[in-house]
Amino acid sequence: MPVKMRLQRHGRKGYAYYHIVVADSRAPRDGRRIERLGSYNPNTNPATVNLNFERALYWLQTGAQPTDTVRNILSWEGVLLKKHLLGGVKKGAFDEAEAERRFNEWKTAKEAKIVKTKEQVAAEKQAAAKARLEAEIAINKAKAEELAKKKAEAQAAAEAAAAEAAAATTEEAPAEETAETPAE
After folding, report:
1. Residues linked to residue 41 through DSSP beta bridges, in sequence order
2. What does residue 32 show for φ and ψ, rounded to 5 degrees?
3. Under a CB-based contact definition with an 8 Å cutoff, are residues 74 and 60 in contact?
4. Alpha-carbon distance 6 to 70, whole Å?
5. What angle do CA 11, 126, 16 make, to 5 degrees?
6. Which class would CATH give 1-78?
7. DSSP string, 75-126
8. d(CA 95, CA 77)
9. Predicted confidence (pLDDT) at residue 52 exceeds the cutoff of 70
10. Pairing relation of β-strands 3-12 and 65-66?
11. Could you tell me the CA-to-CA distances from 154 to 66, 119, 150, 164, 168 in Å, in that order?
C-alpha cells in the first residue's frame, strides 16, 4: 500500500485550514485516512502549524512519501532535519548527543526568528494604527478650522447686518426729527 503524507482541506470558502494526515495514495483527498498528524492554518501570520513531531518522524522513517506542501511544513518544523541527523547517527558520522545538540541549536534559532517576525508584524500594525490616528487628527483639525471659518464669516455677516440695521435706524431717527422740527 503506497502511503502518502498529505493535507485534507477543511474550513469554508475563502478560509481554508488543513489537517496533515497519513493516507493511502489511492484514497480521495478528503476521504479515508490512516492517521491524523496535526493541522496547518495558513490564514494566520505567520502560519500556524500543530504537528505530532514523533509520529511524523515515525511515518517518514517507515517510508511514507510527503507531498510538496507537507514536505515544506515538515522541513519548517524540523522533522526532515531530525530524520537527516538520525541517518548520520546510523551511519556513524557522529553520536546521538551531537545530533541532539545540532537539532536544539537549529530549533532555538528558528524560534528566535519566529519571535522576531511576530514582533515585526506587531510593530508594523502599531505603526499603521498610529499613522491612521494622525491622519484622522489632521482631517478633524482641518474640518474644525473650516467650521470655525464658516462660523466667523456668519458672525461677521450677522454683525455687519446688525450694524447696517443700526445705521439705518440712526439715519431714520434724525430724518424724522428734522421733519418734525420744521412743522412746528
Report:
1. 48
2. -65, 140
3. yes
4. 6
5. 10
6. alpha beta
7. HHHTHHHHHHHHHHHHHTSS-HHHHHHHHHHHHHHHHHHHHHHHHHHHHHHH
8. 22
9. yes
10. parallel
11. 76, 52, 6, 15, 21
* Residue 14 backbone class (left: φ over 0; alpha: ψ -120 to 50; beta: rest): left
Burial class (CB in 10 A: 0-12, 13-18, 19+), 66: buried
Q: What is the pLDDT of residues 77-132, one digit of tens each?
A: 999 999 999 999 999 888 999 999 999 999 999 999 989 988 999 999 999 999 99
Distance of alpha carbon 84 from alpha carbon 157, whole angstroms: 86
Cα–Cα distance measured from residue 76 to residue 60, given in angstroms and rounded to the nearest whole number = 15
Residue holding cell 483527498? 29
Instruction: Report phi then psi at 118, rounded to 5.
Output: -65, -40
Q: Which amino acid is at 38?
A: G
The pTM of this model reads: 0.68
* H/E run at residue 18: strand 15-24
Burial label, 155 (beta-carbon count in 10 A; 0-12, 13-18, 19+): exposed
